[in-house]
User: Fold this.
Amino acid sequence: MITVVFLGRLRDVAGTREQKLYVASKTTLDGLLAILDAQLPGLAAQLSEPGIRVVLNKVLRPLAPDAEIGPNDEVAFMPPVTGG
Amino acid sequence: MPIIRVQNEPFDLAEADALTAGRKDVGGMVVFIGRVRDFNDGQDVSTLFLDHYPGMTEAALEAIANQAEARWPLTGSIIIHRVGELLAGEPIVLVAAASAHRHAAFDACQFMMDVLKTEAPFWKREQSKEGHKWVDARDSDAAARARWSREENA
Assistant:
């Protein structure tokens, strides 16, 4: 299962804070977005807007569209932050 | 080692004592406390909800304090940030820096706040009778953050 986390306002966009996705084998970020978009048309475009960062397993590092995402990975979508 | 805490419970100024208790090498300490301002003109009870990403948020705060401790000669630093439901008038965040001489403490404290505002994984949602609204990031915060990068590269 891949865990997908929608942070901040993206929770409202996606309709949920966290979702578990079953995938038969490893996928990519593009593959994941396609799965999410199939569930909720238009979601992929919103998750791809400038300023939204994608975080793999809680490590902030740019994620290539073809980077491998496998079972037990966690992918979080983060809008611009507003703490402090 | 910075003291880092993410919690729903309120904190008070005395938390900063951890940086000076039993020490004789601290010449100055700067403490900043950020608070929830009323965003609804007092029309009804309004709350602020702070979303965060458990695990990543704590790590990001620790990295920010470590950056400050590497860049300035600090004897210690603290970041405490609340999450969950907060009321107007309550404290949100405490950032403190201690050093032998005051300039490092002032600069490090401001640096940590400026970086936290633009890089720490928190998201604010204003809540009132009318519903809720996620707060937008501010250009002024990004500009403040950029200043520290320019100064470092100068």
Helices of chain B lie at 56-71, 102-119, 139-153. Chain B is about 30% helix and 35% strand. The beta strands of chain B are 3-7, 28-35, 47-52, 74-82, 84-87, 91-99, 122-128, 131-134.
